[in-house]
Every structure is written in C-alpha cells, then in structure tokens.
Known about the structure:
The complex is a heterodimer.
Chain A: H1 2-9, H2 11-18, E1 28-33, H3 39-51, E2 57-61, H4 66-83, H5 90-99, E3 100-105, H6 112-124, E4 134-138, H7 147-160, E5 163-169, E6 195-202, E7 205-213, E8 223-226
Parallel strand pairs in A: 1-5, 1-6, 2-3, 2-4, 4-5
Antiparallel strand pairs in A: 6-7, 7-8
Helix pairs in contact in A: 3-4, 6-7
Chain B: E1 8-15, H1 21-31, H2 55-60, E2 68-73, E3 76-82, H3 90-99, E4 102-108, H4 115-126, E5 131-136, H5 145-156, E6 160-162, E7 164-167, E8 175-178, E9 183-188, E10 194-198, H6 202-219, H7 224-232, H8 237-249, E11 254-258, H9 267-277, E12 287-290, E13 296-299, E14 309-318, E15 321-330, E16 332-334, E17 338-341, E18 347-349, E19 352-357, E20 360-364, E21 366-368, E22 372-376, E23 385-387, E24 393-395, E25 405-411, H10 414-430, E26 435-438, E27 445-449, H11 452-466, E28 470-472, E29 476-477, E30 480-483, E31 487-495, E32 502-512, E33 519-522, H12 531-543, E34 558-566, H13 574-589, E35 594-608, H14 612-620, E36 625-632, E37 635-643, H15 650-657, E38 663-673, H16 676-694
Parallel strand pairs in B: 1-3, 1-4, 4-5, 5-11, 6-11, 33-34
Antiparallel strand pairs in B: 2-3, 7-8, 8-9, 9-10, 12-13, 12-24, 14-15, 14-23, 15-22, 16-21, 17-18, 17-23, 19-20, 19-22, 25-27, 25-28, 25-29, 26-27, 30-35, 31-32, 32-34, 35-37, 35-38, 36-37
Amino acid sequence: MYTKEINERSPLRVFEKSIHGGLGKGNMGVVMSRAGVGKTAFLIGVALDDLMRGRKVLHVSCGDSVDHVRAFYNEIFEDLRRSMNMADSRETLETVDRSRMIHTFRGVEFTPEHLERETQVYGKTDGFEFRPEVVVVDGFDFAKADETALTAMKEYAQRHDVELWLSALSHRSDPSTSPQGIPNPVGRFEAWLSVIVLLEPQERAVLLRLLKDHENPNVEDLHLRLDPKTLLLHREG
Amino acid sequence: MFKDLSKVRNIGISAHIDSGKTTLTERILFYTRRIHAIHEVRGKDGVGATMDSMDLERERGITIASAATHCEWQDHHLNLIDTPGHVDFTIEVERSLRVLDGAILVLCGVAGVQSQSITVDRQMRRYNVPRLAFVNKLDRVGANPIRVADQLREKLGLNPVLLQLPIGLEADHQGVVDLVTMKALYFEGPNGETLREAQIPAELAAEAASRHEHLLDAITMFSDELTEAVLEGNPTVEQIREAIHRGVVSLGLCPVLMGSAYKNRGVQPLLDAVTYYLPNPTEVKNTAVDLENEESQFPIVVKPEAPLISLAFKLEDGPYGQLTYIRTYQGTLKKGDTIVNTRTGRKVKVGRIVRMHASEMEDINDTMAGDIVALFGVDCASGDTFTDGSIEVSMTSMFVPEPVIKLMVKAKDNKSKTNMSKALARFTKEDPTFRTMVDEETSETVIAGMGELHLEVYIERMKREYNAEVETGRPQVAYRETITQTAPFDYVHKKQTGGSGQYGRVVGRVEVSESGDFEFLNKVTGGNIPTEYISSCEKGFRAMLAKGPLVGFPIVAVRVVLTDGASHNVDSSDMAFQAAARGAFREVYRRAKPQVLEPLMKVEVESPIEFQGDVMGTLSQRRGIIIGTTEDQGFVRIESEVPLAEMFGYATILRSATQGKAEFTMEFSRHASAPAAIAEELVKKHQDKVAGKKS
Lengths: 237, 695
C-alpha cells in the first residue's frame, strides 16, 4: 500500500512526532502564511493523509466551488502519486471521494453555525450518516473574527470530537505579534489554538515552522523544508 | 445575398426549460415582422408558438429540435437558432452552439440561475460563445433582476453588467430604464409594438445615475477611447456601446437586459443589443482541421471569395425531403454548384438553397461566408463538412458522448416495421448521440441514447411522424467490461479435417490500457508470424471486443501485446490467424480478472435547504457518492455521482421528497467498476440468457 510510502516523506509524520501524536480530537490548529504560499495545499495534504488512513474528512471552503476543491485534491493526490512513482490509484481515489465531503458557500459568509448545521444534517441523513473526524476550514477570516466565533469553533470541535484545522492569511503590512511572538491576526487568538504552523516561502522550497505545540513551553525548533508543489519533505541532495 | 457581413448576426437563444425562451423567440419574430400574430407556447388558440414546429413540442410546451430561422432588425440580418433546454437533448444544444457567433441566455426573473442554466453556460464556455443575458418574467411575483445578475457572477462566474433597470416589478412592471442612453422606455400598443422614450422617472433617477457610473467603471477597461472620454466627462453613447461590444466579444463581459416577453416588454431593446454587442461572423475566430496536413489547424478566412467551407449542423425530414441546415464559414455557395462532402468524398449538386422562416421557407440563389441557410436534396450526415473540392478540410469534429442507456423496440405490425426502420434511419442521421443496432442473440432492434427522456421523445416521434406503433422493453444501462491485470497467452489454432488445414500460433499478453481504448502492439521479431498475418491477428482480437463474455457488453481499455507465434507454410492463412487470436483472447480473458464497469452520472440537485437531508438520502440510497454541497441563500446545491442504473424514475422520487421544490440535472461522468454483488447478478443474468439460447 503506497500510503506507507507517502508516510515516510510526509511532513506530517515528523510533525506528529514533534507535536506528540498530532493535533488531537477536540483541538484546533492553524496553518498561516501570506497569500499564495500554499495554505490550501497544506490543508489538503493534512486531509489526504487522514483520508488515506481511513478517517472521514469534512472540507469547508470559503470561496472556492466544490468542483474546484475536488480538482485540487485530485491534483495534489496525482502529484503525490507521481513523486512516489506509485501504480494506478483509481481505487484509492474512490475511497477518498467516499470519505470526504466538500462544503462551500455562495453569497453567504461562513459562520460556526453553518458548520454545526451542516454536520448535523450529515449525521441525520438516512443511509448516509457521515460523521467527520477531521474538519478543515479553508479561508476562515481571522481578520474579521472575534472571540465569540473562536469559542464557538472550539466548542464545535469538542462537541463533535473532531480535529479542526483552519487556514489564516497573514499580511506583510501587519508585522504585529502576540506577546508569545505569534504573528497577527492569529496571535490574538493564540489561547484557543493548540497548534500553530507558519509557512514561509523560500527559494525553491517552503519552510514549515512550528510556532505553537499544545501546552509545551519549549516548542521544538522545527524547520522543515518542503517541496513547494507537493508540500512533501524536500529530498535532500 | 448579404453583402455586408458586419450586419449579420448568428445567434442562439439558450435557457432553462421554463424561462420563457420560446415566448421570447415568438415575440422577436413578431417584432421583426416574420409572423403576424402572437401565439402562446401552450396556445389557447391551438396554433402554438411558431418556432416549435413539431407537434410533440407543442403538446409538451417544450422545444426539442432546434429550428433555424431568419429575420431582419434595423437593417441587420439575424439568424436565430432556437435551442432545447432539457439536458437530455444537449447534443442539440451543443450542435447549435458550434455554429453560433453569440447567444442570448434567457433567465427567469424569479428562479434566476437554475441548474440547467449552469449546464448550458458550461457548454457555451466550451465553444467560446459571447453572450447577453435577458432576465425575463419581470411581471411575475417575486421577480428580481438585480439578484439574477448577482447570480450570474456567483454561480456562472460571468462578469455581468446591468444595461437596464426595471421600472416597476411584478404587476407594476411598466418598462425599463436604458442605462446607456439614460432614457426610460415604455412599450405601448396592443402588442407592445410602439416604443415610447421618456425621461427617467424621478424616483429612479438617483439609482439610474449610480448604475450608469457603475456601468462606465465596468467597461472602461475594454476601451482606451472611452476611458479618456470618461476622464474628460463627455462619453458618447457610441463610445459606450463600442466598449461594451469589445467586452462581450472578448468574453470579458455579460450585459444584462430585462423585461417580460409575455407582456411584450423589453424585446425590442434586446434586439438592438444583439446588433450592438454580439459579434458579426468576421469577429469570431474559427478553425478547421486540415486533412491534407496531418489534421493541423486550418484558419478560416471569412471572405466570400475564399474556397468554400460549409458545415451541415442539422438535418430535418420535411414534407419535401431532407432539409440540411448549413453554416458557411468561408467562400460562396450558389444554386447549381457541385460541392464535395469531405467525409465521404462524394460530390453533390446543390439543387435548392432556402432561407428558413420558422416553418416557412424562401428560395434564394446563393449564400456566403457567415450565413446560415438550408439545402434541399443533399444527402449527408449531421456534422459533415462541404467544400468546393479545392481544399480538403473538415470543421473540428463535434464532441459526441457515448450513449449510456438502451432500450429494445419492436414494431407492432408489418407496416409499423417498415415505418420504424425509416424513422430510425432518419433519427441516427439527425442525432449522433442516438444509435440503433440489432442484438445478434435476440434479433431485437435496440436503440441507445443519452437518457430516458431522450429515448422517449424518439419513440413518440416514431408514432406521430412515422405512424410506427412500437412496443418497448425496459431501459437498460450500457455496461462495459474490462480487465484488471496482465495475463500471458500462448494459443495454437490447428485444424486438420481433410483438404487444406488451418494453423496459427499466437503468443503474447493482454494488459490494462490506460488510454481506455483498445491498443494492439506488435513485437513479433524474426518473421515468426509473417507480416501479412499480423493484421489478421489484430482483426481477430478486435472481433472479441464487441461483446464481452461476462455480461455481453463491449470490452474497453485492453492492450494486446503480440510477442511471438508460429506459422505453417501451407496451412496458415488470414482465417487461421484470426481464429487463433479469437481463441487466445477467449482463453486469456478470465485470467486477466475481468470486471464489469457501469456508467456513473454526475447528478446535481438544487433544493431549498430544509430538504438537504432528504435529498442526500435519496442519492445515497441510490449508491451515490456525495461529492459536496454548496449553500446559497436558502438553497443548497448537492453534487454527486450516482450509477445510471439507479437513476430510473428519480424525477418522481425527488419530487415527492421535496414537495416538488427541487430539481436536478444529470450528465454522463465516467465508467467505474460495479460493486461485486451487482456485477455477479449481471453476470448470472447474462449466463442464464446465453444458456437459455443454447438449450
């Protein structure tokens, strides 16, 4: 099974080791970067990693269409497959399709209530009963968010016992940080978040830095160089 | 013949089934004086709208086949193609879009962008058709053209810009404000034929001014001249129109007009907009395929003096024989000319050229680049290209999907039998997605197409137009078979029964072909199989693909690699190697782990959000995979993939699950392996059938 092959080069494995086994159910994690660095690709990488380990994922996108998100998954999956020289993958892709739900919005803004409503509908539908274990919210607007919204999101994660990953856009024009040194707009909400990851563009690579690791006061000095296309660990040499 | 191509517009009217497109076409024909009275689609006067020339369409109040018609407006020549709105007839829509230079996308002012509008728009995008939007039914309760314009951006990703504002809505709808000229327009007289220009009503003045500014903002990027004029504060109406025109032609802009065709409001300004903003034939880039030059791109020169290239895009069986609708892309075609069908190489003499006005016609002597007319007495298939013989090109082949459903048909008596074959011969020529074949095992006639409704309509047409009474079987899904692993073969065909014998040995392997097609690779060296018999082997393997042994459906995605073999000086022959190949395939097929594939349909349901769970339930009970959901102001769009076999009768199920408030579209997505239990059942059924025949 090639999921094993992927595992060896997945930054998430290294990551899990350094963050003591992953984000953990009921917790919220954030990946932040400036526009165009690869937040969505990173989140899809996290989701695919879970999907291929048989977990159910709800992917919420604030802005892209269902077709677009699905095409993005297929593209990243194909990149992974190619970089690993894996054989035909149709069956795995089908499993991915079956274990993942994509939810998007048109003309309405994302709120935690939407997420709650959608999850309840999935749970109650006869013959469907989709209960996500991982929820990804891509495009969550941290700049506009307030404490109530973050609290509602955190409560959602705990109520449904899911790992909740969010993406956050940071701005070059706003160099401010929280007292712990987490850049805004995420820094303001540091208390709600268990894991904070920063992606920084470098020449021919993306640097992954771990800024917060649960309650661990000594965050491991994790600097992973990732392939900018697949966001897998860069092959050295 | 038109001399001035800049005054020609070839346009289609495309829309969702109930958005009032036929009524709009009817009004256009009335205002352009092509007809002298207005009939309603479901006419109380029993006449029916003029463009719906088939009885069936009249009865169902829908348009099935696209009829081309010609009319004139403000010294412009308009060729209108009325296109069907139902998804089962998409080949008709696609074929029309292929020959159009522009289109009017008709939207219901209440329902807005519905799922079918999305399908139609996707097709327009595929053929790069510039479009105007017409928001219809402003007289209806709940109409809101501004919201519909927003949906054009949100749901279709267009760049809509309002060219008008409504003066009153619902029962108060009186007219429109023209945001280009900044005048109010009212439609007076018994049929709205008198246009009255007036000052913008005071209560709308502020909004009109702000929308006018917004319009200028949106279009200046298409014209430097306009940008300068706006900066100087004096843009002219002509400059504004020119900028909009450029935006539309470059597919960067979708002007939104509005009115109520039924109440005779807003149609004339829409016709004006067609002449101002949609491109003329010289402004659209078309290419043909050069058959003499490895199918390289052949640029079309839209000039009457260039060598002739015409495309037959639609056939109709009229009372006077076959009517062939053609679009001429370059050159001139005259009555009496001899033209060449590049597909068959056959020469045809052009007897009559006619211009169609809905169901009436006018004889003309010639037609030239950019025009759409019909020919009489020309035998050809839909999609054929004609030239004058000096060049060998073909218009790019149209995208034709494989049929996904089939149905047994049987004539009730001998007379019906003759009529049925006539009808089937005609339909297959008209519609490339409609196929007919005879089942070798049962000797039954089978028809195949793109959906239940697609086939139903043809059965109705057989009865009505051809007087053929037919019985039909249950609709059947078009399954496929394929292999899942590589398997080697080594097979000897040997027969020695007096006279000359037969001998052929083939060695090689079968494997999965990623392209999805059949591939044949010859790797035989040293002449172990003489070169002349290699093609015999290929023929033998190919012969096995039509009917797979598992369920009797075509086998796809197989590559045969022939690596070795043996022959005999006297006993080897074409026949012997064909037989060896067939034998080898029969024997190796089981070992290559064959599997049944079933067609999956992309099903999109749009429903009020309170029924989301119920709708998802109906889909997952049908073995559907739900891909995703999109929330949209009280509505939800659910995207899924469902096996076609589970979709029969879905319309009724969906209606009862949602109180009739949801709608769905369905198109072929791909073939995927059928679940084991279902495959087993199909295999068993097929084996029983085969055994039954033998006993």
